[in-house]
Amino acid sequence: MTLLSYQIFKTVAEAGSFHKAADLLGLTPSAISHAISSMEKELGFSVLARSRAGVTLTNYGEHLLPYVNAVLNSDESLQQVVAEFNGMKQGTVKVGCFSSACTSFMPEVIKSFRKQYPAIRIEVFEGTYDDVSYWIKNGIVDFGFLSASSAGDLKLEIFYRDPLVCVVPKDYRKTSSGDSITVEEMAKMNFVVQRESTDADIQNYMKENGLDVPTDFHVVDDLATAAMVASGLGVCIMPELVMKDIPYDVKSYPLQPAASRMIGLAALTPQFMAPAVRTLYRHILDHCRNL
Description:
Layout: H1 3-15, H2 18-25, H3 29-43, E1 48-51, E2 54-57, H4 59-85, E3 91-97, H5 99-104, H6 106-116, E4 120-126, H7 129-137, E5 143-147, E6 155-169, E7 181-182, H8 183-186, E8 192-194, H9 200-208, E9 217-219, H10 222-230, E10 236-239, H11 240-243, E11 250-256, E12 260-267, H12 275-289
Parallel strand pairs: 3-4, 3-5, 7-11, 8-9
Antiparallel strand pairs: 1-2, 5-12, 6-10, 6-11, 6-12
């Protein structure tokens, strides 16, 4: 099998269609179909299931895809090393981001990085903590933003401390004294709760402090959470960084006891990064530590 056949398999798996993959790669659908058939013949098993709705990965295909990604990433690394030997900085770097990291860090990072390294292309993949962790472990991205509580066994280089706050409707009247909201006061409130894959830090705080609160709302999106709070449907706990992007009329208070999520960059093998990947990785750390 060739690198082209690996790239065709990866593209078809992501696009879910021979025709879409053909458009992306500049090939004909028949060439795509022939390449996949030849690959399956050589492997001795099917990697794609065909139907009128498109194509999906077979069980064999799902297990094979991470290894194909690893081969393609290794080839990209080789090309970047050769370019570096020739005095050039070029290549493609794929970064996984959860929502608030994507909006708070990446726009300025990309702008400043492109000024220094215009030949290096950056691809951003936005998703939940679980998405980013999966992408890193399966070679879909080179590295990604995660919190300490969501990194698991991935090595995390922490660069930012993000306090958690309690978000309430604008007309909410505190029952406790001081500038913060206590666990005792929060225990009497209705909550809008985000799913654990969206913000494990919040779920951990609630469990550690015995906040087994009632809720009818289990959401993923930060804006949806804030919109429900603004409408008086409950309160929520959010990282302070998220609140910078919230347009709704709500108030936020520090928590008592206080807590924070620790944000960093995670990579599968940070000691073996391709030149362009290593350059962007260091640029992000330098940029974000100066915020």
